[in-house]
Amino acid sequence: MTNMKAQLLLMHGAGASTQSPFMQQLTLALTEHNIQVSLFDFAYMQQREISGSKRPAPKAALLVPELSSVLSTLPGDLPLFIGGKSMGGRIASLWAALEPDIQMQSARRVQGVFAYGYPFHPPKKTQWRIAHFSNLSMPLCIIQGERDPFGHRLEVEAHLWPKVTLQWLTTADHDFKPLQRSGVNQAQLIAQAALITSESIDAIISKT
User: What InterPro entries does the record point to (predicted)?
Assistant: First the structure.
């Protein structure tokens, strides 16, 4: 499509593929903002889809090379961004913290990262997954539900990272499902996340 302003490579969360309702709704909402979305399933998820098994995700460090490989094959000349839901966003952020010479092995330069429900820590545990945030070489925009058990607003806002921006969705959980009293629904919050993404992409592109 000739009117697209950017390309976004999106990856799935640990437990569901890019064909999940959440990922499909997000893809459609992003496309409405002239963002060309490319979906990528890690090898373990591809095998799960074929076999029907519940094979768990490998350790995050083992998935980063898969992202590097697919980045080197992406066609096109639009400004490129990467991201994903939960684990997918974490993998994208880990890639963004690699040494610049490793990143440059990709055929195209990545300009920023988007995480939809970042898994700051496992629910009810204190093992935070943020050590690499200090090494980010590009902006990371995290769109997070206020009551996400993987990192809710009160605990996350106590931290500051130079290249990280946080955008909060009203009373939303990890899948952007809000409390009924909020007056909004999941579809509206996914649409809001897409709008935030679009505006953030515009701001990043304007600075390049």
Answer: AB_hydrolase_fold (IPR029058), KANL3/Tex30_Abhydrolase (IPR046879), NSL3/Tex30 (IPR026555)
pTM of the model: 0.95
Q: Summarize pLDDT for 64-115 with one digit per residue, the tens.
A: 999 999 999 998 889 999 999 999 999 999 999 998 777 777 767 999 999 9
15: CATH: 3.40.50.1820
179, 155 Cβ separation under 8 angstroms: no
pLDDT tens by residue, 7-47: 999 999 999 999 999 999 999 999 999 999 999 999 999 99
Domain with 199 in it = 6-206
Number of domains present in the structure of the chain: 1
What span, in angstroms and rounded, lies between the C-alpha atoms of 147 and 123? 11
Which distant-in-sequence residues (6+ apart) come within 8 Å of 194 by Cβ? Answer: 26, 29, 30, 32, 33, 35
Bridge partner residues of 110 (DSSP): 80
